[in-house]
Amino acid sequence: MIYHHIAINVPLAGGLLTYSHPEALPAGTRVAVPFTNKTVAGIVWQSGVTPTVDTRKILPVHTVFAHEAPLPESWRRLLEFTARYYHYPLGQAVAAALPQGLKEIRPAAQPEPPQFYTLNATGRQQTAPPAHHRKKQALWQALQSGSPAMPALKQLHPQAPKLVETWAAQGWISRHSAAAPVLQPSEHHLNPDQQAAAAAVSAASGSFRPFLLYGITGSGKTEVYFDVMAKVLAAGQQVLFLLPEINLTPQLLKRVQARFADVPTAVLHSQTAAGARTQDYLRARLGQAKLIIGTRLAVFTPLPDLGLIVVDEEHDTSFKQENELRYHARDLAVWRAQQAACPIILGSATPSLESWHKAHSGAYMLLELSRRAHTAAQLPQVQILDIRRLKLDNGFSTPALKLLHDNFRQGGLSLVYLNRRGFAPALFCSDCGHTFGCPRCSAKMVLHQRARQLRCHHCDYRQAIPRQCPDCGNQDLTAVGHGTQRVEETLRQALPQARIERVDRDSTANKNDWANLYRRISEHSIDILVGTQMLAKGHDFARLNLVLVLNADGSLYSADFRAPERLFAELMQVSGRAGRAESAGRVLIQTQLPDHPVFAAVQMQDYRRFADEALAERRLFAMPPYGFQAAIRADAPDIGTALQFLHDIKAEVAEQLPDTVSQMGPAPMLMVRLAERERAQLFLESPDRRALHQAVAQWLRLLQHHSHHKVRWSVDIDPQEV
Ligand code: ADP
Ligand code: ZN
C-alpha cells in the first residue's frame, strides 16, 4: 500500500488527510475519497508519505480520475502559499480555487483539442453577410482575417458553431488543429511614452519584474498591455489578464477579441456558467487557451506556459475577496509572476497606495504615461461646488441643474453620478454643515425616513428626527444619500423633455444590456445618464461631456482610513469619463467639505499630490503600507457575545504577544448587523509582517480551542473593510 496526502474540502487546520492506494498516484491527480459517511472529491498532494496514524484506520482512495491531467506543481505551490499566507485550511483553499466541475465526484469532460477555422479560397469569393446582420458579419470577418478557434467565434455570435458548420458544408471553411497566432496589428502607432513602457516590459520577458503602469484614463494603458501581450502570445506563451468584477464589460472584451481574434481565449469570471468555466479552466491548464481573461478568481487558473500577467485597474477593491478565502488577487498575481519568472504589469490611473509606495521604494518599476493618447482628447475641467449654503432640490443645487439644462439644450450627454459606497442616508444642516453623530459612540446616525427616526448602527441608539440644527438653530435639515430613483424623479420634473436613463445593477444584469446602452447613446437617444459606480469604470461613452457628482462626501464621514483613497479613485475615474473624445468635458462636484484635500487633488487631476499627502499621513500613523494588519472578526446573534468572545481571546493572546504587535479593539464593525448577525472585530497591527503572522497563528489556535456555538469567526489578512 502507498499512502497519500490528499486535500479535501474540510475545515481541517493542516488541510490534508491520509488515504491509501495500491499504486503511487502523481501529485495533482483528482480523486474521490470517503470522508465521514460521504464520498468527496480531493486532490493528491503528496504520494508515498509515511503515515502518522494507525495504518489500519487509513481508508483507501475510492476513485482515481486518471484520464484527467493532474493539476501542475506550480498550481499546488500557489495554493500552499495562499493557504499559508491567508491562514486558511489548504483543502478549503483548493476548493475555492477550483471550478465546480473539478469538485464533483465524477470525471470532468476533457476539452477537445482546439480546432481553428479559416475562410478558404472558395469562401473568400462569396459575398459577406450584409451589414445589418452585425454579428454574422463580424463572424465572417474574423474567419476572413485569421484562424480563430470556436470560443472566440462564439463571443462574436452565439450561433457560431451552427453557422460555421453550415458554411463548412458549403465548402467555404477549412479546419486545422494548430494555428500560429496571426495577430492583428495595432490600430495606433504607440506614442513615445507608450513605446518606452512597452519596451521596458518586453525587455523583462523571462524574468520576474513587477511594473506599475500609471497613467490617467485615456492615456493609452490598454494599448501598452496589448503591445506587450502580442509579443508574449506570438512566442506561444500564456497571458493572464485580470480585471475588476464590474469592468468585465462587452466593451473591453470586444476590444481584446478584436485585437486577439486568433488567440484561443478563456474568459473566467463569476458569471460564467459552471460548465463553461470548467472547460475554460481545463483549456488553460492544458495550455490550449493562451489568453486568460478574468476577474479575481481567474488568478487561480493553472497556467503551464505563463509569460505575462496584466492587472488592469489594480487599485480596484473587487480584487479582494471578502468572504471565505479572503485573498487579494493582485497580491497573489505578483506572487505568481515571481513564481513563473515573468513580468507583471499593474495598471491604474489611481494606483493603490500600496503599489505606489512599492514603485517608490524600488520594489516595482514605475512606468508613466503622462498624456492622453488620443491627441484630440482633453482633460476635463473640474469644478468643486460648496453646497453648504445652497438650497438643494432633492440633492441638486441650482447651478448644477442649470448646467444640465444647458448641456441638454446643446445636445450634449450628461452623467449624474451618485457616490454611494459605504454610504447610508443621513441628515445634515444645509446651513452650517452639522451632521448628526450618535451621542453614545463615534458613528454617524442613519436616517430612517419611514420610521421618522435617526438610528445608530453601532449601538442601536434611536431618536426622533430633530426639528432644528442643535448648532445653529436652522430648521432646514436636509437628507443626503438619495437613491437613484428619487434623483431620476427630480430630474424628470426639472427637465421634462430630456431622455433620462437610470443605470444600476438591475438595468445592466443582462449580458446585452450594456451593448444596448452603448447603441442608444451613440444613436443620441439618451440625454442624461443617472447611476452609481457601475458607470464610473471602464466605460467609454464617446459623447459624454458633463458629469455631475452629487453628495460626493458620504464616505468621508466614515471611520474607514481608506475612504479618501477610494473616493479619490472614484472621482478621478468618473471625471475621466467626461471628454474622452473630441469635446473637452466638464465636471461639477457638489460637496459640503470643499476644503478636504481629496477635492483639491481631484480638481487638479493630480494623483501624485493626493498620493504623497495620503502616504505621509499613513506613515505618521503606521497604517498600511507602513504597517501590516490582520482583522479577527466574530459574529453572533448579538454584538455582546461577539465582543466578549474576542475580549477573552485577546487577553489570553496578550500574555505572549511580541512587542511589535498591537491588538486594537475589539469594536463593533461599521456595518454591525449583517444577515441577522452582529459583527465585531479586532485588529492586529505591526510594522513587522512576520511577527504579525505569528500573532495570527496564535489567535487561530485559540479561536479553534474556544469554539462557541453562537459565534462564527474569520481571519482577514491585509483587510480592506473596516
Ligand atoms: P487607457 O487604457 O489608459 O484608458 P486606452 O488604451 O483605452 O487608454 O486609450 C484611450 C484611447 O486612445 C482609445 O480610444 C485608444 O484607441 C486611443 N489610443 C491609445 N493609444 C493611442 C495612440 N498611440 N495613438 C492614438 N490613439 C491612441
Ligand atoms: Zn451609537
TrEMBL record:
Keywords: ATP-binding, DNA replication, DNA-binding, Helicase, Hydrolase, Isomerase, Metal-binding, Nucleotide-binding, Primosome, Zinc. The keyword Zinc applies. Binds 2 zinc ions per subunit. It is an enzyme of class 5 (isomerase). It holds the Pfam family PriA_C. Zn(2+) 1 binds at residues 429, 432, 469, 472. Its EC number is 5.6.2.4. It catalyses: Couples ATP hydrolysis with the unwinding of duplex DNA by translocating in the 3'-5' direction; ATP + H2O = ADP + phosphate + H(+). HAMAP family: PriA. Initiates the restart of stalled replication forks, which reloads the replicative helicase on sites other than the origin of replication. Recognizes and binds to abandoned replication forks and remodels them to uncover a helicase loading site. Promotes assembly of the primosome at these replication forks. This is Replication restart protein PriA. It comes from Uruburuella testudinis.
